[in-house]
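Hey, I was hoping to borrow your eyes for a little while. No rush at all, and the record is pasted right below:
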Amino acid sequence: MRYVKVSLIPTEGDIDPVSGEIQQEPSLTREAILHINRLNDGTVVLLTQLRGDNDALLEILEDHPAVISYNVSSVRDGLQAYIHAEPTRIASGLLSLTQQHEFVLDTPIEYGPEGGFRVALIGQEETVRRAIEDVPEGIRVELEQLSDYDPELRELSSLLTDRQREILNTAADLGYYEVPRRATHQDIADELDLSTTTVGEHLRKIEARMLSEIAH
């Protein structure tokens, strides 16, 4: 089994039906799609993780023509929004790939730059390759990671909070764990708009948690 992570960047229109409005709202930051399902009528339901102003999010969802119903809850790390909506053309095409090809769509799905997503697929390499080839027009695909699927690493990742995974992934992307080290706490803090103290505390907790699990 292979683990493939790609960035899906729209070149025509949006993937997420409400992403444009949320991106334009300075008080809101999209983090990830925790779960997503396509219903028989073609609509989608998704559970998303965000940070920011609850009232601003409610106003966007209330006024958006693609949103059928919604519910917003405050959680420890921010906001979670359950949204039932009409998908965009691009989103509909992407979701159809999960029915056409035998692969597992790993979650959470991270929001990326330019209205895109970082998506991880698990499956046979040839199957995943064909699915990527069938990505609909209007999407640019950039390969970020290709490796053998290691369930033990995924289990370790599940021990972390959403914020800890975000910080760990950012640290890895910036080269914090490379030798020689290519990033500092300040670099990570600047990328995530956090303080260096917060970054340092989170990384110490992450490393302690994962090393403790490995040692056992």
User: Anything to note?
Assistant: The beta strands are 2-10, 28-38, 44-52, 67-75, 78-85, 104-111, 117-123, 139-148. The two ends are 26 Å apart (CA to CA).
